[in-house]
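ZP: hey, is the 2-hydroxyethylsulfonic acid complex queued? I don't see it on the tracker
AM: it wasn't, my bad. submitting now with these inputs:
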Amino acid sequence: SGRLTGKTIVITGASSGIGRSTAIEFARTAPKDLKLVLTARRLETLEEVAAEIKKEVGDGVKVLPFKLDVSQPEEVKTFVERLPEEFREIDVLVNNAGLVKGVAQAPSIEEEDLNVMFATNVTGLINMTQAVLPIFKKRAEGGKGDIINIGSIAGREPYAGGSIYCSTKAAVKSFTDALRKELVATRIRVISVDPGQVETNFSVVRFYGDKSKADAVYAGCEPLTPEDIAEIIVFAAGRRENVVVADTLVFPSHQASAGVMHRKT
Ligand code: NDP
Ligand code: 8X3
């Protein structure tokens, strides 16, 4: 939509799944004068996404692949100053980077898994928000810009074998909802998108690379595609300035809660 023309958009975790699809969807929706900063740990994969966007929409969209590990506070703190000047006037931050590790239950949860999930999903998201908000707050009317946080059904409904991941997403929900209240006197929009089951690399990462275990998660189901979530993110960012898509929960039709899944046998 015309409302997105000329915007600068930062996406974390843009090398795969929902983040990657969101980058492509923004480019398709606003193929003129958009600036996309694509961040993740894998720079080469980001470069492939950038090439794909260029092939599809041409040179109207400027894409900057940028290596950034959100779990490293020092990298995040210096992120904005390390951007080339033409990409620093950020309008939209999509806090999408996140992961789950394992299905272990207490007291068998690996310390490393616990730490990486919190450092990425929670501290990383908060640090990114704090790095970008000062740019938003300099603008008129108390500030302007969009923070779009990717939560999860897991943040609303914790399940056995997901205690840590669910805790991280509950923390994202609380941070998001508090932030919206803190910024109520501004034009800064705090937007939450909470997906249910989406087929991405998510379950492959959960099972430490075991593809057959990941596939079993979706057996007999028709999960959402990352494009489905990307469309909702881009829709929210493209609304009229006074419209805040504050909170969304998105399921595929066979899913009715974290645990209620209809499987075809
Ligand atoms: P993917 O595994 O496909 O993508 C995850 C992305 O996060 C990758 O681009 C990865 O890039 C990036 N990432 C992971 N760790 C870091 C880090 N430390 N710093 C920067 N980037 C990082 O999974 P999804 O697309 O499914 O996940 C995206 C978000 O959606 C997550 O927050 C997830 O919790 C959430 N979600 C997913 C659901 C699902 O069913 N798939 C449902 C609900 C929410 P790289 O490895 O290159 O760093
Ligand atoms: C991912 C959804 O239910 O697999 O956030 O944890 S779930």
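AM: back. The mean pLDDT is 97.
ZP: great, adding it to the tracker
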